[in-house]
Amino acid sequence: MTRYQIRMDNPARRWDDGLPLGNGRLGAMVMGKPNEETIFINEETLWYGPWRDRHNPDALRMLPDIRRYLQEGDPARAQFYGRMALTSTPKYMNPYQPVGDLRICLLDHQYPVEDYSRTLDLRQAIAEVSYVQRNVRYRREHFVSQPHQVLAIRLTAGAGQKLTVSANISRKPFEEMTARLDARTAANWGQCGAGGVHYFSAVRVVARGGRTGAMGDFVYAEEADSVDFFLAAATDFDGRKDFRERCLASLDTAEQLGYEHLRQAHVAWHSDQFDLVELNLGEDAPADAFTPQLLSELKKDGRHARFLSELLFHFARYLLLASSIGCLLPANLQGIWNGEYTPPWECKFTININTEMNYWFADGCRLSGCLEPLFSLIDRLVARGRETARLIYGCRGFCAHHNTNAWANTDIEGIFDASPVWPMGGAWLCFHLYEHYLHSQDRQFLIQRALPVMREAILFFQDYLFAGPDGKLLTGPSLSPENTYQTADGVKAALCLAPESDLQILRQLLTWYLDGCSQAGCEDGTAAAARDMLNRLPETKTGADGRILEWQEDVTETEPGHRHLSHLIALHPGCQIHEDTPELFRAAEKTLATRLENGSGHSGWSRAWVVCLYARLKNGRQSGFHLTELLRHSIHDNLLDIHPPFQIDGNFGAAEGIKEMLAQSHRGLIDILPALPPDWQKGHVRGIVLRGNIKANLSWSNGRLDQLDLMAGDDRQVAVRYGTCTQTVRLNANEWTEVKICD
Q1: What is the three-class DSSP state of 707?
Q2: Residue 103, Cα to own-chain centre: how many angstroms?
């Protein structure tokens, strides 16, 4: 087994047991069935139905009353009227849907199978299915090409065995039009719901030896030495009407260049991206072991924890490259992959934690190219969110709520009390804009993209915040994402004023905006307003037991072990709770420990956030423990994260946690091995990026740093800490500097 392979010893039984392939825009899930294979195909923009104006016409009229009910301590009444007046009409967005299923059938292929393997090579982004049937070795190789925008599949057989095979594309139960287009091409096309996008997908067969043809809406090859299938898919989401012609042109190019040329270009492109970062945690790759076996042994006695942690890190990098580069839309709740027409949570972009978690690790792990689809969505959220701010709240600027979709919806989504009425989604997404500037030091990006969006978000809060009895500025109606509390008279409630998560998001946004204005030399009226708001926000409060209060009052928590950890945003991904705020640092540690004692971390993404939080608390023992618990309880045999069901943010959050264990770079300080787990005694990481546009290579053995090399994009001095020793280091632009640091 190589270091960068996921190996399975049987075909996938369910869709989310498959092996995911993608190029950002086009996705495929390889199941690996020998006789009759079904590969689930996705295209990022195939969402059901059109954009709809769903603003509730009674929202602005009722907002003062709902806010007054909350001020009077009557959240039940606020929720009763808020559900009618604030929630969207209609309530829910439509889902992300599959393009269809590519079905491949082999003639005379129903016999028992031996020596089966299904392998995903992360470094090459190639999935292979291999097995022996009647003493003949069969192989299928699959990849989704970024350079050439097709899914390519090659079928071969050993011992001179000929192949007779067919393929077609179906979309049960939403098929509209299917047909053969020529002697080697079949297609599936239609419209995804009334007013929705038009889609087109096509498959072409090319064979060496034998004969090819088309019959019905199938293509086929008979008595061939090897068979190649090329599939392309597209929609008119971007307004271009030539999507059908573009698909067919991609198939023409693929056929003309040939499978081997496409494969070589694909591997070169992907490995160039993948090889930018290297991580090795000092445990040899188990020879010829299947990944489910390794996970089983980990659950039994803790074996392979370091190797599986390393593999999980690289899988996350692979998945983001496969679902968020060179495309229009960011990774959704399942990346780009979806096998259902009514998927869990509609496969939306959930921006009260999940979309943010998808991208925490992108800049630091040399995946900044994957951020452009997210930034593009944020730009569109600003345009939509101005209307939401005006029509729902009577405010300037922009806001977004807890869910959005391909159309950059910013409305209040859903009907359940614990999630919809939360206007902080746009503000939290702004973190990614400023983090990209901090990592890249791209001044043009700061001035032209980050600060204008942050300014629009702050403009909303200038109008939305209101003064409480003590003059402090409050948010509301709002909530602490998906959590509830009990009022003094025992009523379960979600709506509230100024939950701690709102204040932490707002403090970080305002602080970074002011820092950005200083960096850009563009002090303006918004900066003055931001400074005033920052000074008037309520301070973080702690309760009698020393925990950070999630709400303004020390209320009874309905779920003490709730999966969301929203009142710790200032610890991670924010950076306003740290060692130099010792009381809050200890309170955060107490808050996290108590949450876990009551059952938090039970979902995959929540456990991944726990890994990140303990890394910020500089607790390598706990961070490593929870990473292993994630592997034990929240990871499929193919290493996809389980919420449950499959939800990709846990994969991405785990990679962020691993990075944070090895190097942190907040508040102008580079902290090396700040949360190294005790059993990670040896290893190295190369190519990661720290804030300040500083690349880092480091290695350690016997639990102690051996070597640290840093390279900055410009001449600068940096403070570097390892253990108890901190020193200032001079870095010359684009030159590696070995840093000798004591402990």
Answers
A1: strand
A2: 29
Using a 10 angstrom Cβ sphere, with 0-12 exposed, 13-18 middle and 19 or more buried, the burial of residue 62 is middle
Residue 138 · residue 131 · CB < 8 Å: yes
Residues belonging to the chain: 743
- Tens-digit pLDDT profile for residues 526-574: 999 999 999 999 999 999 999 999 999 999 999 999 999 999 999 999 9
| DSSP H or E stretch at residue 213 | strand 211-215
3-state secondary structure of 212: strand
- CA angle centred on 23, ends 453 and 369, rounded to 5°: 35
Buried-state track 352-390, b at ≥16 Cβ within 10 A, e below 16? bbbbbbbbbbbbbbbbbebbbbbbebbeebbebbbebbb
Q: Give this prediction's pTM.
A: 0.98
Question: If you search the block for the tokens 């730009």, which residue do you land on?
Answer: 379
Output the CA torsion sign for 407, 411, 414, 419.
Answer: positive
**Kind plus residue range of the DSSP H or E element containing 207:** strand 198-208
Token pair 């929705």: residue: 196
Q: Does pLDDT of 362 surpass 60?
A: yes
For helices 620-633 and 649-662, angle between their N-to-C axes, nearest 10 degrees: 160
Encoded tokens for 358: 């998808």
Q: How far apart are CA 244 and CA 715, in angstroms?
A: 51
**Choice between 3 and 641, residue whose per-residue pLDDT is larger:** 641
Distance between CA atoms of residues 203 and 462, nearest Å:
54
Q: Are 720 and 668 in contact (CB under 8 A)?
A: no
What does the buried/exposed string (b/e) look like for 407-443 if buried means 16 or more CB atoms within 10 Å of the residue's CB? bbbbbbbbeebbbbbbbbbbbbbbbbbbbbbbbbbbe
Residue 370 · residue 325 · CB < 8 Å: yes
CB atoms within 10 A of CB 21: 25
Q: 266 burial class (0-12, 13-18, 19+ CB within 10 angstroms)?
A: buried
Query: What pLDDT band is residue 488 in, cutting at 50, 70 and 90?
Result: confident
Residue 741 has pLDDT above 90, yes or no: no
Cα dist from 618 to 17, 270, 432, 615, 662, whole Å: 35, 34, 23, 5, 10
Domains recognised in the chain with CATH numbers: 5-47+95-276 (2.70.98.50), 59-89+324-600 (1.50.10.10)
Separation of alpha carbons 154 and 139, rounded Å: 8
Instruction: Quote the mean pLDDT of the chain.
Output: 97
Is 582 buried (19+), middle (13-18) or exposed (0-12) by CB count in 10 A? exposed
With 70 as the cut, is the pLDDT of residue 632 above it?
yes
SS3 state at 615:
helix
The pLDDT score that the predictor gives to residue 629 is 98
Range list of H helices, 182-258: 243-257
Q: Which residues of 39-56 are buried (b: 16+ CB within 10 A; e: fewer)?
A: bbbbbbbbbbbebeebbb
The yes-or-no verdict on residue 176 having pLDDT over 90 is yes
Report pLDDT digits (tens) over 436-483: 999 999 999 999 999 999 999 999 999 999 999 999 999 999 999 999
Contact indicator for 29, 17 with CB cutoff of 8 Å: no
According to DSSP, residue 639 is labeled S
Answer whether 649's CB lies under 8 Å from 640's CB.
Answer: no
| Residue range 493-537, pLDDT digits in tens | 999 999 999 999 999 999 999 999 999 998 889 999 999 999 999
Confidence tier at 285 by pLDDT (50, 70, 90): confident
Of all residues in the chain, the percent with pLDDT exceeding 70 is 100
pLDDT at 743: 63
Do the Cβ atoms of 205 and 148 come closer than 8 Å? no
Nearest to 665 by CA among 631, 622, 708: 708
